[in-house]
Every structure is written in structure tokens, then in C-alpha cells.
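Sample A.
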Amino acid sequence: MASVTGAVLQMLRRFAVLFCIIVLGFLVFKRPDGGLSKGLIMVAVIVGLVGLRAAWGWLSVRLGVRVCHLHTGGVVVTGLFGQTKHVVPWDRVAVLKHMSNMSPLLTFHRFELVRHDGGSVAILVLQRNPEFASALKRASHLAGMREA
């Protein structure tokens, strides 16, 4: 239920930002009376929503929620409010897929644990040289799974 709530909140936030951008476009083309103040309100809403998202992302890392824990038996991924979202034992993982981007504008590592039953769990790490990446690869090699 928590992942559905998070997805709904994310969809509503994106819809609100899109709506504000559309209203800003109409304000630019129509130029109504008081358009400047209406435009500033829309920009404030967009900046507020994006800022709240960024602040929650920073705070959640500081508080230890939305993290991935490596254990000898597998991987545990926590959700938006610290609840357990995914538990993947090593014996149920068929392949570890790794993709990374090291551009100056966007640097990330994306790991995907593909299970034997067809489901997968994606883990995104937003750092250039994270210690998590080497630890995950080491744990996957010890568990005997292959990389793709």
C-alpha cells in the first residue's frame, strides 16, 4: 500500500507541475491583467513542489530512510517512510545488471536484481564512486550470480 501511495503522490506532484507550466504558457500568450502576479504565484508553486521534493530527498538520506541494506542473506530496500519495500534473498536472484553514467551533469549507477520468477528490483545510486557499488558486486560474486 505504501508504494501505491508514493506513486500516487509522485503522479500528483508531476501533474501539478505540468498544470502550472501550462498556466504559465497561457499567461505568456494571453497577457491578462495581473498576469505578472499570477505568473509569480505559478512559479512559486513549481519551485515549492520541486524544493519540497529535493528537501525530502536530502532529509530522507540523513534520517536513513529510502536506503538499501546489504546482508549476507540478500538485499533489503526500504521505502519512502522507512518501511521495508523489497526483500531479495541471494538465492532468488538470477542476474545482476549494472548500468552507469559518468557525465558531469548526471552521475549515477543503476543496479537491477533480476529474480528467477521474472520480477526485478532496481537500485539507483547517485554518486561517482560509491562504496555500495563495490560491496554489492562483491556480495553478488560471493553468492555465485552472474553479471549482465
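Sample B.
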Amino acid sequence: MEIVSVATVVGGHTTPADDYQGGVESIIRLHEQYPTEALKGVDGFSHLQVLWHFHLGSPDDVALHARSPRNNPQWEPSGTFGHRNHRRPNRLAISQPRLLGIDGRDVHVTDLDAVDGTPVFDFAGWFPPMGPRGPIHAPKWVSEMLEPDYWAPADERPAHS
């Protein structure tokens, strides 16, 4: 199977980071070979589902073993498919950014946790009825790791010494 990008992330985050992803606006710029008519109707959605590539990762980063999230020994180790990061075999991610508007081939979004230059393989409006069905649960470490700071505003990120 060959998969090619349909768009590229422009602006927004410039370097990968674990936290402080919130409040950053970026553009998903549709490639020239796709007509702008392909975007018709997208503006009716509040959020998108975006499939993108961890392009700054390396195949050498792939980890096919159980490990503690963020190497925190307080969290139970889990395997590759129990994590959401670049250490995956295909280095793919799915995000649900909020749609701000469309201008030509530029799809303006906020809260997309991809960086400038990221290849986007596909995107679509988020269909709420197709979201998770039934009760939703996750391991405790997911909330402990993400809830304090993942979606905190990027401009509140502490300076690293």
C-alpha cells in the first residue's frame, strides 16, 4: 500500500513536546493537486479528525516492547499499541483539532498536536455519532500524565534551563 500526504501542517508548534499543546493555531494546507472543491462542506464541522505522520521521528525510535509511559516507573509498563507517540511502527497519529475556518486551500485549526511541516495523510469532519460507543475508560496513568498540562496553553510552557 502506498500512502501519500494530501496536506501539510503550516505554522503552529515548531518542535515536538509532551505537554502545553493548547491554544496554538496552525493551518492544514491542502496540496495543489487536490481541488479546493474537496473542502466543500468541511466548514460545517466544529472539529476534524486528522491522520498525520510523526515525520521527525526515526525508524530507530520504534519501540516494540512494554515500557513505562514517559519512562515514569510509577506507571505500569504497556506495549507499543498502548501508547500514543512516535515510537510506533508506522509513526502515525490521529488528532481531533478544532476547526476555525477555511480560506482557499488553508484549513485553519487550533489544538493540533503536530508540528510545522508535518505531512497530513487524511482529514475529515468529526462525526460525533461515529465516536466511541459505550462507557469509555483508560488506565489511570493516562489521566495522571495528560490532564495536568497536555492541553495547557503553549504560552504557559515553563522555560527549560
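B remarks: The longest strand covers residues 119-125. The longest helix spans residues 140-146.
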